[in-house]
Design brief:
Blueprint (H helix, E strand, L loop, with lengths): L5 H6 L5 E4 L6 H31 L6 H29 L3 E3 H34 L4 H4 L2 H27 L8 E2 L6 H7 L5 H34 L4 H29 L8 H25 L2 H11 L1
Parallel strand pairs: 1-3
Antiparallel strand pairs: 1-2
């Protein structure tokens, strides 16, 4: 297939639908997982919607930090609604997904993945400016700057997913149609191709270096500067408040980046799909469920706005 032109390679594509293997080939075990993933889906959906409603209805929370938190909630909803409904359906009913449906799932998941990584950097930059440049905060993070950052996040992540999806659409899938995963992700789909995937692997590796490692480095540098500035604060209460606004973000970032980097930074030959299923659960299901809990339970302003809304 290496000697064939792209058109001839595409003509060899025989797969019209994929079979999602899921976590187990034993239906009884799949049904045991169903309540857990249904709970994660409900928590992620309701929690992130609640965050959006609370922040939207409280004028005191109309600040850059909460603007990005709402954007993060939108990304988490996009991720969970892309992955979990089909996963729940495959556990109790139909495990097949059409070729087009699989590519759409890959597109929107990769879009949300890139947007989340970039949003973490935008949130770290916001905290850096707020703590290290408090007098210039209102100027540097005015509404126009926040909108430009949000547009950049969605545009860059859209371009990223467009490249990956476009490269994957050129691959023929004639070896098998069994996806050894619980959703359509790049690593397991590359395993099924009967054409060379070196370009796809190289682009996935480059995107991981830029989006994951690159953004993580920006976040670490921002927080090094933040820690240095916080240590200069004489008031113990001031230090606690400064660290409290950053600790939630650091906790979420560490959980998300470690799992995403583990999945995408290796070549396809080294993927262990059984282990990767467990890791993928963290950034597709667990993280979107925990994000609203972490940011609300550890944030006094959000809790106060929530109490006011409920009352």
């Amino acid at each position: 297939s290496e000697l064939l032109p792209p058109a001839a390679v595409m003509n060899q594509t025989q797969v019209t639908e994929f079979l999602i293997l899921g976590f187990s080939e034993i239906p009884q075990l799949e049904k045991l997982f169903f309540p857990a993933f249904l709970l994660l889906y409900m928590v992620a959906l309701s929690g992130n919607l609640l965050i959006m409603v609370v922040i939207g209805s409280s004028p005191a929370l109309h600040t850059p930090m909460y603007f990005f938190l709402v954007s993060l909630a939108v990304v988490d909803i996009l991720c969970t609604c892309t992955i979990l409904p089909k996963l729940l359906d495959s556990m109790v009913a139909d495990r097949t997904i059409s070729y087009g449906g699989c590519m759409l799932q890959l597109f929107f998941f990769t879009w949300s993945l890139g947007a989340e990584l970039l949003l973490f950097s935008a949130m770290a930059y916001d905290r850096y400016v707020a703590i290290c440049w408090p007098l210039r905060y209102s100027t540097l993070m005015d509404p126009r700057a926040c909108r430009l950052l949000a547009v950049a996040v969605w545009t860059v992540s859209l371009a990223n997913t467009g490249v990956h999806t476009g490269l994957l659409l050129r691959l023929p899938f004639c070896h098998s149609n069994v996806v050894q995963h619980f959703f359509c992700e790049i690593p397991p789909l590359l395993k099924l191709s009967c054409a060379p995937t070196r370009l796809n692997e190289a682009m996935a590796f480059a995107a991981d270096i830029i989006l994951a490692v690159g953004n993580f480095s920006v976040i670490i540098l921002s927080y090094v500067r933040i820690i240095v500035s916080v240590l200069r604060i004489r008031s113990a209460a001031g230090k606690r408040r400064a660290f409290s606004t950053c600790s939630s973000h650091l906790l979420v970032v560490t959980l998300y980046y470690s799992t995403v980097t583990y999945t995408y930074i290796r070549p396809a030959s080294r993927y262990s799909l059984d282990k990767d299923k467990v890791v993928s659960v963290i950034y597709t299901s667990v993280a979107p469920s925990l994000n609203p809990l972490i940011y609300s339970l550890r944030n006094t302003d959000v809790k106060a706005a929530l109490r006011k809304l409920l009352c």
